[in-house]
Design a protein that fits this description.
Length: 533
């Protein structure tokens, strides 16, 4: 995905080129190519990269034709190019006009991870155009084959120095990628970020935009009144901080298709969430979104940004509550939860997503550790949320498993809580079991009657004892323990023992005997679901 400097060196026009320095920068992504023959680095500061802003990800061609013997100027230009986000420099006509590449340039390139490339020495017939054509053709072919704008922008911005990782940088990359002017506005259509395409038309766009009396409807487009042969697109954005913004695109010539608009919107939202916040605040929410939406490529790229080992994550814990204030409570509990997990040595991600508190982690070292962590989570989260429930989904091998488990929890947790009302912590197996019970109920009267058949002997008993209820508590809640069942039913242990003996006599087998217990267990669960409706 996206063209790197190393891949460019395989092109016909660059196969004989030699990398002199900055080898660690060979993996940097190249978005374009340009030619530079300036002798004054001040020109780069004032005109090409004003106010330290980013306009790069380009690879630059030069022959230092106006400074062939001025090493300090050559060094100053390389430093400024690197600061502006350019990825490397291809030097032509070494041994022809430029006597040699000074070692100081190589040392600086190594220091800055700025790739310094020399074309074959002593060849006066080399042409800039051959390299330019090869490089741009390679970039265009890559974009056609790999259409993920989101991954491209993420890869390029995350590879930049911290001070260049901004929303404005991302908007410039986005503008270059789709060849359109990009305006990011607040809800009142006040311009927050503007990148004109082509560059230099900012003032014209500002004047024309401010003169507009109305805008396209949300998600719509219309001819742009102030840019000839172009359309104005409006894409509302809801960022995770709660703020609403408007993304407007001005595209001349060919219109932007719906798929590209969707990618542009997603890329902008992701960049706002990650790089549009205050220093130190990380939008881990985007990583969680990528995991749950089963987007492995995007997930890996975000994991690199956040330094998260997603390969080690095999568990997802979901905590949810029906209370209106649950989402706010979950967010408030995050700092305390992080303290609870301070001693956990594995990978850990926490976030509130879709009104649920989610924890992604590597598998605890032991069942005892898992139980301790579950108890800590519930003690931290449940005060004020008596209906809060935790579902532990283990053995997840990939994002598809994670998404399936999340959807299963959304669909089946309510039924799980009906089947096991005495519990507040559940497993993925409980979800699967509840789903099977619900499917059986929906499969028809004949299948339902067959499922409930094991309970008939107990239900026909004439004694004034709720044997069916005792059986359900014994199997579903009491873990086949007389002690636990007596505590849950507020009965003496001897009373429970008597009822279990009576149930055994009616059934012809002990209720905890395998394999008969399997069908009996399911029958009790299905009956609970039916009684709750």
């Amino acid at each position: 995905m996206s063209v790197t400097v190393e891949e460019l060196l395989k092109l016909p026009s660059l196969r004989r080129a030699k990398v002199l320095g900055g080898h660690r920068g060979l993996s940097k992504i190249v978005s374009s190519i340009s030619v530079l023959e300036s002798t004054d680095p001040g020109v780069l500061v004032d005109e090409v990269f004003p106010q330290g802003e980013f306009f790069g990800s380009e690879i630059v061609i030069t022959g230092f034709l106006n400074s062939t013997h001025n090493i300090p100027l050559q060094l100053a230009n390389i430093r400024r190019l690197a600061e502006g986000g350019e990825v490397g420099l291809i030097i032509f006509y070494v041994g022809v006009y430029l006597p040699s590449v000074d070692q100081q340039l190589i040392d600086l390139a190594n220091e800055l991870d700025f790739v310094l490339i020399s074309m074959p020495e002593g060849e006066a017939t080399l042409r800039y155009g051959e390299v330019i054509n090869d490089v741009m053709d390679c970039i265009f072919r890559d974009r056609a084959q790999n259409s993920s704008i989101v991954l491209d922008i993420l890869a390029r911005v995350s590879a930049l120095p911290k001070h260049l990782q901004t929303v404005n940088t991302a908007m410039k990359m986005l503008s270059d990628r789709i060849s359109a002017s990009v305006l990011l506005c607040d809800q009142a259509f006040n311009i927050l970020n503007l990148v004109a395409w082509p560059r230099g038309f900012e003032s014209d766009i500002i004047c024309g935009f401010k003169a507009l009396s109305e805008y396209p409807g949300p998600g719509g487009s219309e001819p742009c009144a102030f840019v000839p042969d172009s359309r104005l697109y409006r894409l509302p954005i809801g960022a995770d901080g709660g703020q609403r913004m408007e993304l407007l695109l001005i595209k001349a010539g060919m219109p932007i298709d719906a798929a590209t608009l969707g990618q542009v919107l997603d890329a902008t939202r992701v960049c706002i969430n990650i790089w549009g916040r205050k220093h130190g605040e990380i939008a881990i929410h985007e990583l969680v979104r990528a995991i749950l939406q089963d987007e492995p490529m995007k997930m890996r790229r975000l994991a690199e940004i956040f330094h998260v080992d997603v390969a080690a994550i095999h568990e997802m814990w979901i905590i949810q509550s029906g209370a209106e204030e649950a989402k706010a409570r979950f967010k408030q509990a995050l700092p305390a939860l992080r303290e609870c997990f301070a001693g956990f040595s594995g990978s850990l991600i926490m976030d509130v997503y879709g009104g649920r508190l989610l924890l992604f982690m590597s598998t605890p070292l032991s069942q005892q550790e898992a139980e301790r962590m579950t108890e800590a989570v519930m003690e931290t989260v449940t005060p004020g949320l008596p209906d809060a429930a935790l579902c532990r989904c283990s053995g997840l091998m990939n994002t598809a498993d994670v998404r399936a488990a999340y959807l299963s929890c959304k669909e089946n947790l309510a039924d799980v809580m009906k089947i096991y009302p005495a519990r507040r912590a559940y497993t993925l197996g409980d979800l699967d079991f509840a789903h099977g019970c619900r499917s059986l109920i929906q499969s028809g009267e004949a299948a339902l009657a067959e499922c409930l058949r094991p309970l008939l002997p107990v239900q026909k008993d004439n004694e004034e004892l709720d044997l069916a209820e005792t059986l359900a508590v014994f199997l579903l809640d009491g873990e086949s323990s007389v002690t636990m069942t007596s505590e849950l039913l507020y009965l003496h242990k001897n009373t429970v023992k008597y009822r279990i003996r009576r149930i055994s006599n009616l059934l012809g087998y002990k209720p905890d005997k395998m394999p008969e217990m399997l069908e009996l267990y399911k029958a009790c669960a299905v009956k609970r679901l039916l009684l709750d409706e």
